[in-house]
Amino acid sequence: MIRTWLVIPLLALVACANAGEDFENICHAEARSGAASIADPAQRAQHIAQWLEANVSSSDAKEAMAALAHASPESRGELLRAAARELGYTGDCPMADAR
Question: How far is CA 3 from its chain centroid?
Answer without folding.
Answer: 32
